[in-house]
Amino acid sequence: MKTIERRSTCPINYSVEIFGDKWMLLLLRDLMFNGKNSFLEFKASDEKISSAVLTEKLNTLLNEGIVTKITSPKNASKFLYMLTEKGIELVPFMVEFLNWGSRYNPNGGPKTLLEKIEKNKKKAIAELQDNLRSQRHSYTNNPSDAF
């Protein structure tokens, strides 16, 4: 297990060392908002991450305990990446990032989710977190029901 060598004990530094590049935030976006959880699904994203970079970033998320990797119940040669509770705790941060980006990006963002956030941000965050927990639970505890 490769660990990140920390430059300091500063909490912001800790966060930046994990999430300080675009790929990590885009992987979190895909896990949280786009329902993606396999290597090929991540590769199919519009941003065109390379296989080597994707492998490196997924391994970092695994090593940091933000995602867990399970064997697909439908295909034993396929792995699925699911957010852990530590990863699910990042939902409020990602919602704020999404909200800020949609406000200043002329192309907007996912309208249905943004409308939910605007109407009741706290409820939208709770629903997202509950859905992610349910998804993880269905994959890990009832594999036959997951697909």
Automatic annotation (TrEMBL):
Coiled coil: none
tRNA processing listed as a keyword: no
Protein's UniProt name: Winged helix-turn-helix transcriptional regulator
InterPro entries (alphabetical): HTH_HxlR, WH-like_DNA-bd_sf, WH_DNA-bd_sf
Keywords from the named record: DNA-binding, Transcription, Transcription regulation
Pfam families reported for this sequence: HxlR (PF01638)
Gene3D superfamilies: Winged helix-like DNA-binding domain superfamily/Winged helix DNA-binding domain (1.10.10.10)
Record domain HTH hxlR-type: where: 10-109
PROSITE patterns according to UniProt: HTH_HXLR
KW Oxidoreductase (keyword) present: no
